[in-house]
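anyone seen this seq b4? input:
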Amino acid sequence: MGPVFKSVRLRLTFWHVLVFALLLSGFSLLLYGFFSRDLYDRFDASISSAANVAASFFQNEVRENKGNVAAGALETLSELPLSATAIAIFEASQPLAASNPEIAQSIRRSGLLDQVQRTGRPAFTTLRAADQRQTRLVALPPVAVQGRACYIAAAQPLDSLAEQLRLLRRILFAALPSTVLISGLAGFLLARKSLAPVVAMSNQAASISARSLHQRLDVGNAKDELGRLATVFNELLSRLERSFESMRTFMADASHELRTPLAIIRGEADVALSQPHRPEGEYRESLAVILDEGRRLSRLVDDMLVLARADAGQPVVHREQFYLNDVLEECCRAARPLSQQKHLSLTLDVPSDVPFLGDPGLVRQMTLNLLDNAIRYTPSGGSVSVKLMREDDSARIIVSDTGVGIPPESVDRVFERFYRVDKARSRAEGGSGLGLSIVKWVVEAHKGSVKLASDPGRGTTFTVSLPL
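predicted toks r here
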């Protein structure tokens, strides 16, 4: 049905007409059956009444004729006000008198008298004559007259009943198609009116592009189904707008971050090549600067690749069993030379053997980023501490420093990509603004949480909770 009716309006109209036609057809059949049954019951009651009247007349006429059954039967037929009803009187199976001899023979051949004799109740049957006219027959239980069992039977053509049923069929056959047609037109108009808001929303949605994500669909009644659909679509547009805005910001920040080291590399190369002969020391200094910026570019690209894979939903977390305390000790050994260069005190407090199921590489990168951030923003002579605590079914990694701290207005934004509290200082020291973003992603990838507490001028504490 999909390829035939591509329009929802047509499909709704089709199902509406189909269901309505089935219901109306069923109702018409029930109505016809009930009406037909009622007409037959009334008809049977009518000929039964005529047969009972004839039986009463017959008994009276036999008494008046001093027990002469044959004479009484003839007198009965002559006295009865017969119209379309034919009466036949039998003794056993032999006719005594009949207003229509053919009807009397039909009653004998039908076996109706034998049925009454067996059951002792009135019996009915319908016979079709040679002219295709149907006749309804009834035979009453035997009447005892002068010790003899006599049967009274009546017959009447079904012409009037058949005509009434024929008229009813014509009415139903004429009313059913016209009613279904009217219902189809009404269903189409109703579907068209009901789907008009959907058409309007689709037209509005078609006009929305990546440059006009600020537009929203009109919400008529927010409580009905279409209103909720429009509301959900508007919420989707809001999420897309935020995602596109975040993507634009990310691309702008990434371009800015990549431009600075590239400009330095190009500048150093231009200076080194500007003169044909220069001292070896100057070449080595230029190559050292280029090497540092290349390393910075490599770290930046690696971090961007990790976040891009995370956004794409790629399975970058490879879980295995390892000890958290071993990873923290390894990270502190790697960060100790950097802390010594700045004359910082780096302490480690970890219990022995804290098993953990996760990605050791990502946990190592998370810890190094926290340590790098703490060392970078702690003045000379300060201290950085790392502590591992086990609490029930979780492990807590606490990295604290006595650095410059984070202003309250920046606490909620430090985990954003490329966000820096002190941009000039961070860029000079080689920070990219992606370290804490990776920390947050690694923690969430391990179903954990990270909290930040900072006191400007006194230090910052990062608390990572990981489920064991």
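Confidence is low (pLDDT under 50) at residues 424-428. The domain at 8-164 is CATH 3.30.450.20 (Beta-Lactamase). kinda curious what u guys think
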